[in-house]
Prior knowledge:
Layout: H1 2-12, H2 17-30, H3 37-60, H4 76-100, H5 102-122, H6 128-131, H7 136-148, H8 156-163, H9 165-176, H10 184-201, H11 209-225, H12 233-260, H13 264-288, E1 305-308, E2 311-314, H14 316-325
Antiparallel strand pairs: 1-2
Helix pairs in contact: 2-3, 2-7, 3-4, 3-7, 4-5, 5-7, 7-8, 8-10, 9-10, 9-12, 10-11, 11-12
Amino acid sequence: MLQSLLLYTKQRFSPVKFPLLALFLLLHAVGQTAMHLQHIYLFVLLLAILYLFRLFDDLASREVDAAKTNRIYTLDAPYRQLLRFCLGYALVLLLLLGMYHLQAGLLLLGFLLLNAAAYYVLFHKGQWRFVLPLLKYPFLCFLMLYMASAPATIASAQALSCLSLLPVFLLFESLSDPEFRLSLFQVVLLFVAAHLLLWFAYPAWGIYLPVVALAVLFLLWRHLKRTAAIPYAPYLLLLYFLMVRLISSGYSSSLTLMDERQSPLEKGAGGLTGKAEEIKADKLEREQFPETATFTCSIFQSPYPLRQGGLDYYSSDSVFSNFRKL
């Protein structure tokens, strides 16, 4: 089994591409380039999970890949050995993850079960065999986000940014796999969908997206129409969307920080002004409708309530005299 596992790892798990892929997912999840010790743990964990999904996808594609060379898992004996290893490896990984982060372990277990059911039902229908392996990327991005921050602090914007990876990786697959081809309409639709999800996540950044989006869309269109492919086009696409994610989240964070740094005096002055306007409006209403108006103030309470029309209200003069004393 060890020999088969080593040969499979050499054939199917690139020591360059998969660490870069793990780094891409981690950066996209946290939305910043500043790394901490926890992020290093998450990076190693993400590599281990990617290896599990890579093995699972290959074992599920055994019949489809039978005619391809350098695929040891298509042979009978190595296939059975790798299948046993995959089951054991998944169990150990789930146990370790559950000990470190119980909720994350349950999330991974649930996704593995749903993913296996989807493979069983949809894998041999249409182009689902190209789409199903890509579903793990939005999930893994969200899993890293879930583990890197408190669940209560996860905003809908961050979840939408994770979901945007699905159209991104569909475009990536169409550029990297000759068998998975998309029409120009589908490319435009996916490209727009990815940007819309990021725009809904960070509306302030949306004003900058159309110009850049049109430029990259032109490159994609040229790539699909030309016989000679643009070198490293799939990876340039991932780099582009990563930069959009980091810049948009950074821009949104700077706006939030500026709002938090607003002077407390300005906030207090705004609050007092609003209270004064409210008191003036109530006074005007009482003058117009003396029989029905009721004036109450929870902050500036007068000890001399007046009575008119069977209803109690406080003297506006005493209220404004208290207001002037502040």
